[in-house]
Amino acid sequence: MTTRLTAHFALEELVATQHRRIDNRPPPDVVETLRTTAVQMEEVRKLLGDRVITVSSGYRCPALNRAVGGARRSAHLTGHAVDFNCYGFGRPKAVCRVLAASSLAFDQLIEEGTWIHISFDPRMRRQVLTKRPGGGYVLGLQTHKGEVQ
């Protein structure tokens, strides 16, 4: 059975994990946060021409967050973050450019190289970052020459 949060996002895809031994079922308060996050992801989808979004990570319980090497205070722990791709739109950098140039409210938008991380943490800082190849992050979206836009 599928639990629809919005027209295009289901609870099951926002809690899915490859780690079968970890129970990643969210508590009720996180389910409500995921519902709000899914509404925001519908806005992302509209900005990307209503193309399919493939979620690779949404909510992570503490054990799962540790298993994948997530940040100690990751917005995934509260259901505020989604890692995704929109293959029908283009590469992660192109997706990030569109989202960063929009009026979409978000806390963090990170071009992670092969995927996009977006957080709707209540701080809503509109922080745009690019992951560095050797680790760490730089503020802004980098061009192919390493310049920050």
Helix and strand composition category: alpha+beta
Shape: globular
Q: Give the neighbour order of strands across the main sheet.
A: 1-2-4-3-5-6
Number of domains as seen in the coordinates: 1
Counting DSSP H or I runs of 4 or more residues, the number of helices is: 4
Mean pLDDT over all positions: 93
Helix-strand sequence: HHEHEHEEEE
Mind describing the biggest β-sheet? 6 strands, mixed
CATH topology: Muramoyl-pentapeptide Carboxypeptidase, domain 2
CATH class: Alpha Beta
Q: What is the CA-CA span between the terminal residues?
A: 44 Å
Set out the fold topology.
Blueprint: H1 11-15, H2 28-47, E1 54-57, H3 62-67, E2 81-85, H4 92-101, E3 108-111, E4 116-119, E5 127-131, E6 137-139
Parallel strand pairs: 3-5
Antiparallel strand pairs: 1-2, 2-4, 3-4, 5-6
Tag the structure with descriptive keywords:
alpha+beta; single chain; 149 residues; 4 helices; Muramoyl-pentapeptide Carboxypeptidase, domain 2
Describe the structure.
This protein is an alpha+beta fold. The protein has a single domain, classed as Muramoyl-pentapeptide Carboxypeptidase, domain 2, CATH 3.30.1380.10. It has 4 helices and 6 strands, in the order H-H-E-H-E-H-E-E-E-E. A 6-stranded mixed sheet has the order 1-2-4-3-5-6. Residues 145-149 have low confidence and may be disordered.
Could you give a quick summary of the protein structure above?
The protein is built from 4 helices and 6 strands. The chain has 149 residues and is α+β, with helices and mostly antiparallel strands.
